[in-house]
């Protein structure tokens, strides 16, 4: 299990409420941020504030630097240039105020760790001092598992679960500490429509109830189109940020890719045609799938 992805000890400075010193401060602030590996620039000059309660979708072709951006926000990867603050402070790894749903990695089938153990690690893996009362922890774990529809397999070793089932458990783990920022790396991968809705519903609930800022990496914007405040689109070392109606347009993506790209709206869905990487999955037509299932 990649325990460090979601759980690690708190630094002493991080034991507070997670609120910024300045309540009006953005949850995340990137200034002139650049990330490069050797000569390869993933993105440069990124200037971005993510407000509390905002839903930012991060799109872009394979290798454009979406996961790397999350690693930067998690404090696991240093910027090459520019600066970053998270909840008003320099980012650091292991903050309980930042929930993380990592990109899907399949667990070995022989692992003994059960779904409920993984969620529990998300709950008390950050804590110093005596463990919380067992019953309270068990109830909270049960509630979290229930919220993602994972109760039926709470006691099944995680390696025996399907990709979609594992994904739902990871979401429960990420929400365990009531994070003020939620970073999701393709959390809808492997999920059928019903469970996509369960997951997006949970994220939305959390965002509205607690003002959690959401950074949501996805290859498929349509399942979250109604929730997204802004899109950050990364491609060819460049980026574009703005509301979906401004970014998901033929002119914006043509400029970003440097070649003709057409963005169509079909029954309220976004369809991208002609992106050199074959598109980033926006052409997937959920509406058709939904109709078929009824
Ligand atoms: N530590 C590292 N050192 C060198 N190169 C790296 C490192 N981390 C990532 N890369 C490279 O940076 C590029 C971007 O990787 P990243 O995982 O951020 O892409 P992505 O947009 O999330 O892709 P995908 O859609 O396939 O998940 C890749 O080519 C990757 O190999």
Automatic annotation (TrEMBL):
Which residues constitute the signal peptide according to the record? none
Q: Looking at the record, which segments are called Disordered?
A: 1-25, 275-294
Keywords, A to Z? ATP-binding, Nucleotide-binding, Transport
Q: InterPro entries this protein is in?
A: AAA+_ATPase (IPR003593), ABC_transporter-like_ATP-bd (IPR003439), ABC_transporter-like_CS (IPR017871), Metal_Ion_Import_ABC (IPR050153), P-loop_NTPase (IPR027417)
The protein's matches in SMART domains, at most eight in alphabetical order, are given as: AAA
Question: What molecular functions are annotated in GO for this chain?
Answer: ATP binding
Query: Which residues span the membrane?
Result: none
Chain ranges of the ABC transporter domain: 28-261
Q: Which PROSITE patterns match?
A: ABC_TRANSPORTER_1, ABC_TRANSPORTER_2
Q: What domain of life does the UniProt record list for this protein's source?
A: Bacteria
User: Which family is this protein grouped under?
Assistant: Belongs to the ABC transporter superfamily.
Checking PANTHER family in the record gives: IRON TRANSPORT SYSTEM ATP-BINDING PROTEIN HI_0361-RELATED, METAL TRANSPORT SYSTEM ATP-BINDING PROTEIN TM_0124-RELATED
Q: What is this protein called?
A: ATP-binding cassette domain-containing protein
Q: Which organism is it from?
A: Streptomyces nigrescens
């Amino acid at each position: 299990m990649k325990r460090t992805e979601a759980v690690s000890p708190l630094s002493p400075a991080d034991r507070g409420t997670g609120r910024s010193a300045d309540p009006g401060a953005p949850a995340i602030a990137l200034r002139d941020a650049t990330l490069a590996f050797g000569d390869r620039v993933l993105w440069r000059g990124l200037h971005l504030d993510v407000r509390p309660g905002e839903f930012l979708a991060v799109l872009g072709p394979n290798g454009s630097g979406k996961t790397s951006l999350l690693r930067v926000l998690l404090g696991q990867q240093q910027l090459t240039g520019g600066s970053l603050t998270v909840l008003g402070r320099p980012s650091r790894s292991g903050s309980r105020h930042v929930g993380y749903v990592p990109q899907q990695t399949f667990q070995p089938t022989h692992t003994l760790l059960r779904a409920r153990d993984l969620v529990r690690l998300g709950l008390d893996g950050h804590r110093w001092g005596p463990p919380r009362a067992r019953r309270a922890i068990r109830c909270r774990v049960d509630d979290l598992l229930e919220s993602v529809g994972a109760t039926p397999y709470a006691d099944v070793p995680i390696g025996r679960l399907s990709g979609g089932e594992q994904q739902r458990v990871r979401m429960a783990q990420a929400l365990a500490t009531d994070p003020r920022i939620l970073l999701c790396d393709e959390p809808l991968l492997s999920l059928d429509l019903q469970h996509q809705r369960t997951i997006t519903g949970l994220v939305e609930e959390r965002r509205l109830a607690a003002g959690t800022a959401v950074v949501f990496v996805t290859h498929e914007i349509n399942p979250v189109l109604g929730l997204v405040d802004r899109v950050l689109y990364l491609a060819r070392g460049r980026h574009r940020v703005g509301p979906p109606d401004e970014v998901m347009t033929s002119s914006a993506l043509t400029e970003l890719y440097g070649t003709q790209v057409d963005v169509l709206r079909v029954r309220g869905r976004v369809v991208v045609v002609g992106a050199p990487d074959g598109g980033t999955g926006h052409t997937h037509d959920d509406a058709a799938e939904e109709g078929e299932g009824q």
